[in-house]
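Chapter summary example.
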Amino acid sequence: MNPSGNGPGLRSYLYVPGDAGRRLDMAQGLRADAVIADLEDSVVPAHKASALAQVLAWLKSEPVVRDRRGRPVERWVRVNAGCVGLQELNQLVRGHLRGVVLPKITTSADLAAADDVLTAAERRQGLAPGSIAVMPLIETAEAVVNIMPIAGAPRVIMLQLGEIDLAADLGMELGADEGGLAAIRSNIVVASRANGLAAPVGPVSANYSDLERFRFSTERLRRLGFVGRAAIHPAQLPIIHETFTPSADAVASARALLDTAKVFTDAGRGAWVGTDGKMVDAAILRQARRILELAAPSESEIK
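The structure predicted for these 303 residues follows.
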């Protein structure tokens, strides 16, 4: 009962405080591929009830189209942790909700409890079982240790890294090169692939004023196998889209390679040496297909 993952071109997830009023509606016009209304850390306790009411109203409004294909901006909600979050889930299953982000996940039991609540709510709303997707936020040491059962839990279509909380939990100092996080990032990518999930969503960066550093960090995530990233400020979106959208040259090269592959395959050859002197085999062709899957349908959608 795992809803289908994020499709081609879904690269950015913009967090917006749930009590931000009209900013929730406005965020959908900022070219993010998805908006995550936040009920957790960005909302002070005194505003939690108001934030939930505003998010419920937002979910009832008509979706905004994000590209020429007519695809809507996906709507997600990050709930609070524990019992409060389960109560919120019970009310959120309505309108145009695509999925929920679950914070402070430690084991698959947390996800089983959420699945029970969502299943009952879907039944009440007349929705197909499993309609609402789940994105666990990996931000504790225990979650990293339990990553495989978490990734294989019901409804999970992708994982998201919460590195600010994770670093605090580990007592880790995040250096400029983010090297200390490389092993954990790779582990999340491997667990996602092994469980048939979409590639994980990269972490937010709290420093939205240093865009060059943000670009450097985002490019590192792409090289590790991420295909998208969460943002907390609209200024970060163009960098995310540019980094995770294959260039025109890369797309042309991938198409040419696959066209050439057909000739060699028809001739009964599974591997050959390309014009650049490098060997081409099935793994190289998979990479070429992946580039085409990630490519935006037109240059107007890149930024």
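To summarize the output: The first helix runs from residue 23 to 27.
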